[in-house]
Amino acid sequence: MGLYDRHLLPRLIDRGMRNKVMAGYRHRVPPLAAGRVLELGTGAGLNFPFYGRQVTHLFGLEPADHLRQLAARAAEPLPFPVTLLGSGAEALPLESGSIDTVVSTWTLCSVPAVEAALGEARRVLRPGGQLLFMEHGLAPDGDVARTQRRAAPAMRALAGCNPDRPIDALVDAAGFRFTRLERAYLEGPRFLAWHFTGAATPA
Fold this sequence. Notes:
Elements: H1 3-17, H2 20-23, E1 35-40, E2 55-61, H3 65-75, E3 82-85, E4 99-105, H4 114-124, E5 125-136, H5 142-159, H6 167-173, E6 176-185, H7 190-193, E7 194-202
Parallel strand pairs: 1-2, 1-4, 2-3, 4-5
Antiparallel strand pairs: 5-7, 6-7
């Protein structure tokens, strides 16, 4: 991993994640989490203020050192313990069936091996646990999807983002059953605005 990936990219990602559009939607997912919670791609801890007291322990997964340091500061006022993990989502350092809720917001686009990451999320969830997610991905409109596919190589190289991932199909293929699924354009450029928001349990 080079200088750009270690130092510059995490700062660019953090700046992008603080935009007003995302801030306006952060309240939709974390408040639904309960029990022992694993958040994939914690970043600087921008979701932390939205978790409720029904959380008993939060595990925040963030491989970037700079973002993990920011998350540690964001965790200080929380009323429940927080453990920050520096590994990737493809190999979670948690026991099988040990997590009640997995949360993923604007993360699955950037995980290098997203199928493996979703398989790991399913592994660590207890029976009846749930995956809560809000992710952008492949749009149903042909012109938007073509733009996403054309932009994907540059976005992967510059921002680590794959804008053309079919999030619903990936979650389904990983062995989850949807209990709620919303698909809609949010605010912003259309090639980034198609979102999948919902909940799923291990099938």
